[in-house]
């Protein structure tokens, strides 16, 4: 009899650890304190994972499989995966444990120790739900001086024959990024987001989370995520029919009061296994062939899943565990309270934090160019920033969170993932959003107490880190501008930043 462990982000009917499962085996699924609190996940994220786990367990039982499901509030709950595996081994006649490789290095290391600890064979199978295997990525990466997503993505397009003609990419270009940076127009008509009313199982979970995780960040109600494969497919269909059309144009745009924009909101479903990457890609590709969505939108969406999603996973497994310990800028400032409270006069930050708190969601540009940009410019400690991102978003699992935050946002890896830090002044946020219209600060002012903090923090960051960044060819223009600045102007940015950091430390409302 085998013990087959299914984790909270392995909710796919074809998951590799179930491949040869029989009704003689025991499928172990457990809601445990260790996984829910090793970072204090957003309440909505815990509710999503637990409810999706319960629905998935039901579907396995319906398939005739023997599921040992341990609810969070079961009196005998051991509080950890190790504890539950141990309990199952004591209760049952198990001759082997079968697991699909987990999405975090931390858990992989733990599971690898179980064989010795429990004196039972442990088989760890590859996670076949991705489009590039570890070997594919390692082969692609080996011998390259620089790893860049765009080249990896092109290979994936060829390999999976996505948006390809006989002669090359459909439309003649590999990407349409330059068309996908439109600022928001006045009066954009954004469709309502997907909304799945909680069923009885979800209602039970919501009550449980409300009681047991009251001190965790985030709003539990209203809860409208899908928690089943059918629901997730409905969310995908709604995106393809209602949002994909404008996804490309407004991919980078931010509008106050519009957290969902034209994004798909499917990352959480992909990451727990309710959706498969290729089916999302093909759905978008078919919408293009039907004439339902333009190429810039379809290619833009597909590149996120076939390109970025696979690329960051490749980087994670290639570079961990060393990756997490890197800190290129030696950044060490504590994460300020405003990331939890949203209390700041910087309107862009306030909006993005409050939406994150409400929805366990923020779209890519909010994560990168507002929340992340501030963390980079302010020199926040990478470990604290990583923990924040890992716990606040419903789609956050370390294999995807860490490269995005540590690499793309903080450049803590020194350029393994991205060719330059995504640092920006207030001008970028002004161009791509309407946040500045309702801000206490003036985005047009570069210095002084009324000036937009992003403006002086940007130049302070470049001065502070010039020694490490000057050689970067993609920043040549930035340093030329800095060198042309008068000494007074450079000093003003440093003085404004010092005043700002002091106020932050004094817990003033900055
Ligand atoms: P859409 O904008 O509709 O994009 C479609 C899909 O593409 C997403 O569902 C996602 O699966 C994939 N995708 C898009 N961008 C990326 C990317 N950079 N890396 C990997 N996949 C991508 N994504 C996560 O899934 N989990 C995270 O924990 C996470 N943390 C992030 C942290 C930061 C600082 C940044 C800048 C990005 C992060 N991303 C993360 C990537 C991206 O922001 C989210 O995938 C996206 O916002 C999810 O919303 P969506 O489903 O509406 O995506
Ligand atoms: C995210 C999460 C949470 C909140 N809770 C559980 C849980 O109780 N049981 C479980 O098996 N998995 C949970 N997960 C998902 C795991 O943390 C996830 O499998 C690892 O982070 C690896 O990606
Ligand atoms: Fe953000 Fe600066 Fe604009 Fe205020 S002025 S919303 S701080 S970019």
TrEMBL record:
Keyword field contains Calcium: no
Taxonomic classification: Bacteria, Pseudomonadati, Pseudomonadota, Alphaproteobacteria, Rhodobacterales
Name assigned to this protein: Deoxyribodipyrimidine photo-lyase-related protein
Classification via SUPFAM superfamilies: Cryptochrome/photolyase FAD-binding domain
Matches recorded under InterPro entries: Crypto/Photolyase_FAD-like_sf (IPR036134), PhrB-like (IPR007357), Rossmann-like_a/b/a_fold (IPR014729), UV-DNA_repair_photolyase (IPR052551)
Keywords: Lyase
GO molecular function, one term: lyase activity
Pfam families, per the entry: DPRP
Domain of life assignment: Bacteria
Coiled-coil ranges (or none): none
Membrane-crossing segments per the record: none
């Amino acid at each position: 009899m085998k013990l087959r462990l299914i984790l909270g982000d392995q909710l796919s009917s074809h998951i590799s650890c179930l491949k040869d499962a029989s009704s003689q085996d025991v499928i172990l699924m457990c809601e445990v304190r260790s996984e829910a609190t090793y970072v204090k996940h957003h309440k909505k994220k815990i509710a999503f994972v637990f409810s999706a786990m319960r629905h998935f367990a039901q579907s396995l039982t319906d398939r005739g499989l023997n599921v040992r499901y341990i609810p969070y509030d079961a009196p005998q709950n051991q509080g950890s995966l190790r504890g539950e595996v141990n309990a199952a081994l004591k209760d049952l006649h198990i001759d082997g444990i079968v697991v699909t490789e987990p999405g975090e290095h931390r858990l992989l290391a733990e599971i690898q120790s179980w064989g010795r600890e429990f004196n039972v064979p442990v088989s760890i199978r590859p996670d076949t739900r991705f489009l590039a295997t570890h070997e594919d990525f390692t082969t692609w990466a080996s011998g390259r001086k620089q790893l860049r997503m765009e080249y990896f993505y092109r290979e994936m397009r060829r390999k999976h024959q996505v948006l390809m003609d006989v002669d090359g990419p459909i439309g003649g270009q590999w990407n349409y990024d330059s068309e996908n940076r439109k600022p928001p127009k006045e009066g954009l008509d954004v469709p309502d987001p997907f909304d799945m009313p909680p069923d009885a199982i979800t209602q039970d979970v919501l009550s449980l989370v409300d009681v047991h995780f009251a001190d965790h960040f985030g709003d539990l109600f209203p809860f409208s995520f899908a928690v089943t494969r059918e629901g997730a497919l409905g969310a995908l269909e709604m995106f393809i029919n209602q949002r994909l059309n404008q996804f490309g144009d407004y991919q980078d745009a931010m509008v106050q009061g519009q957290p969902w924009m034209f994004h798909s909101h499917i990352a959480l479903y992909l990451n727990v296994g309710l959706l498969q990457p290729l089916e999302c890609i093909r759905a978008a590709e078919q919408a293009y062939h039907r004439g339902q969505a333009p190429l810039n939108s379809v290619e833009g969406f597909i590149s996120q899943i076939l390109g970025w999603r696979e690329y960051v996973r490749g980087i994670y497994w290639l570079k961990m565990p060393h990756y997490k310990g890197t800190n290129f800028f030696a950044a060490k400032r504590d994460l300020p309270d405003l990331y939890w409270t949203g209390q700041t006069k910087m309107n862009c930050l306030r909006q993005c934090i409050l939406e994150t708190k409400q929805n366990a969601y923020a779209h890519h540009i909010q994560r990168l160019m507002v929340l992340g940009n501030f963390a980079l410019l302010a020199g926040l400690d990478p470990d604290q920033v990583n923990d924040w991102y890992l716990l606040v978003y419903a789609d956050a699992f370390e294999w995807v969170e860490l490269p995005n935050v540590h690499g793309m946002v903080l450049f803590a890896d020194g350029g393994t993932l991205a060719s330059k830090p995504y640092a920006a002044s207030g001008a970028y946020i002004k161009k791509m959003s309407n946040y500045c219209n309702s801000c206490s600060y003036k985005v047009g002012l570069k210095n002084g107490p009324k000036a937009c903090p992003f403006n002086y923090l940007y130049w302070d960051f470049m001065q502070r880190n010039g020694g490490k960044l000057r050689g970067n060819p993609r920043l040549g223009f930035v340093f030329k501008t800095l060198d042309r600045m008068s000494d007074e102007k450079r000093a003003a940015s440093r003085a404004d930043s010092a005043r700002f950091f002091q106020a932050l430390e004094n817990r003033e409302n900055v």
